[in-house]
Amino acid sequence: MSLDGLALPRHVRDCDVSDPGMVTASLEHRFQLENADDMLHGGVAAVLLDATMGAAARTLEPAGTTVVTQDLKITYLKPVRKPTMPITAVAHVVNRGRTASYGTGKVRDCKDRLVAHAVGNFWTRTAGNGSVVE
Questions:
Q1: 1 three-state secondary structure
Q2: Which among 22, 30, 73, 97 is placed 20 to 30 Å from 104, CA to CA?
Q3: C-alpha span between 79 and 15 (Å, rounded)
Q4: What does the alpha-carbon distance between residue 7 and residue 115 come to, in Å, rounded to a whole number?
């Protein structure tokens, strides 16, 4: 499946769309992504989850539409430090509605430990005017 039109952060690598509605992506360690305690900043994991979950929803839409985040709930389970990088996010759409999709995402460290989990809703928008697809 093509990644055309999927906007992912530039530090994301190994992005894969193996099935419609499912996206996997990894993020390597960079010291710029750490907080003051030398851990991955929680916002970085949030961006990775938001991007992969939105991309998973986007894979189910026809050309000319985009997907934007309606809401996102993240639960952080473990800190991520340099020795446990890269991290990998796996996102999939649980339910696709007429104007929105509901999905989940999980982030695991290089030892396959679950470090964050998210659920979210993503609006489907038409290209150009930003209105919800009817």
A1: coil
A2: 30
A3: 23
A4: 23
Tell me the pLDDT tens digit for each residue of 88-127: 999 999 999 989 999 999 999 999 999 999 999 999 987 6
CA distance 41 to 37: 9
Helix (H) or strand (E) holding 72: strand 65-76
What pTM did the predictor assign?
A: 0.84
Local structure of residue 120 (DSSP, 8 states): E
Q: Phi/psi of residue 83, each to 5°?
A: -65, -15
What count of residues does the chain have?
A: 134
- What structural domains does the chain harbor? 12-126 (3.10.129.10)
User: How far from 107 is each of 28, 78, 93, 98, CA to CA, in Å?
Assistant: 13, 10, 15, 28
Residue type, 90: V
